[in-house]
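Notes, Module 5: Reading structure tokens.

Key idea: the token line is not a picture. It is a compressed description, and you learn to read it the same way you learned to read a sequence, by spotting repeated patterns. We will look at two proteins. The first is printed below with its tokens.
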Amino acid sequence: MGDNDKSMVAKLVGMGVTLGAAWVAHRVVELGWEKARGHKPPAPDSTDDDINFSEVAVAAVITGAVVALSRVLATRGAAKLIAR
């Protein structure tokens, strides 16, 4: 397998791992939110009157941070695995 083929495989594997990690992280945040608050986290585009902005902001910050961290860890892990 040539270097270009390895590079393409590495990119595809990295992308798949990153997407999977982001999905898992989002799901973990959702389940944790449900357990702590008793309901699913509010959607950023929700127009329900009973959802206040602070709850939407907190949910967005937590979700964004956890998803970003999981993507970094997944990308680094995939890169180390492919380098072997």
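Here is the second protein, with the sequence above and the tokens below, as before.
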Amino acid sequence: MAAISGRGATHNQASRRFNLAAREADGDWLDAIEAIDGPAHKLRTSVSLITPRTIISRNASPDIAFSQSINAYAGCEHGCIYCFARPTHAYHDLSPGLDFETMLFAKPDAAALLRSELSRRSYIAAPIAMGTNTDPYQPIEKDWRITRQILEVMVECRHPVFITTKSDRIVRDIDLLADLARDNLVAVMISVTTLDPRIARTLEPRAPHPERRIAAITRLAEAGIPVSANMSPIIPAINDHEIEQMVARLATAGARDVNYILVRLPHEVAPLFRAWLDVHYPDRAAKVMALIRDIRGGRDNDPDFGSRMRGQGVWADLTRTRFTKARRKAGLGQERINIRADLFRPPAGAQMQLF
């Protein structure tokens, strides 16, 4: 396998559910297209439409701080090799590998569906998280503007929202976010994995440059929007040497707090990540995986609630200690961001408005 310019995955990993690699050629001309045209045809980004019946997903995981979420898109062009959402592409009969970052899905009816669900008599307002699966501000948001349409509904209804992204494109919606922030209805988390653009180019090839994300933190903070940062994921022997520098830099930029998540490799992500290591870091691939297995109790991944976020063992404990000291030195961790939900009002025209 070899690196593919502008992409995170090195290949299309076979799907756990649909066993894509086991399909046999049937004589169609598509079987020979790579030999005729080369592999580039597979690397063009395409966008298909999804028309779900509902848009709010419910979550009952005990180690996640939100109960509701919205994902405007499926798949993500940022191409982060570590992305734990990659296995979800198997549900579309596509690979969690290159397909995940090149064959995307948009939900153009998302805002209308949200308006409908918020109009129900039974609906109880609670913060809705965005960016929990794939990034709401990935490149296609520039044209589709689905995330912005969702935020417009949030503003109208005074509904609380929490946004996670690794894109500076979020500043394009600073007008809506500032409106929500005035009533403590929004919190934003910007993910910055590394300060080294050389690492970023292979780790998350189509995500904005780290400096642009840091500049976005400053812009949001200056606009009065509560913004924190996330060094996620921390990968042993890849970016863990940056912990102290990262925390200090993000605090200076205006982040109210900085958190982290240790790398997770669920399902098909593990073999994709190992292939990425073999291509980009062959000198330390075995060391990285040995440390990850130490964190995860001897496995590539720990799926158990609670421990999946914290990790275990000497390396996990050391990382936690370093991060705690770095936050304390930067003066972080003293402020808690609270989002209120008591200002919610159903969308204009909803039946509830008549009473």
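Summary for the second protein:
- Residues 18-31 have pLDDT under 50 and may be disordered.
- Residues 313-329 form the longest helix (17 residues).
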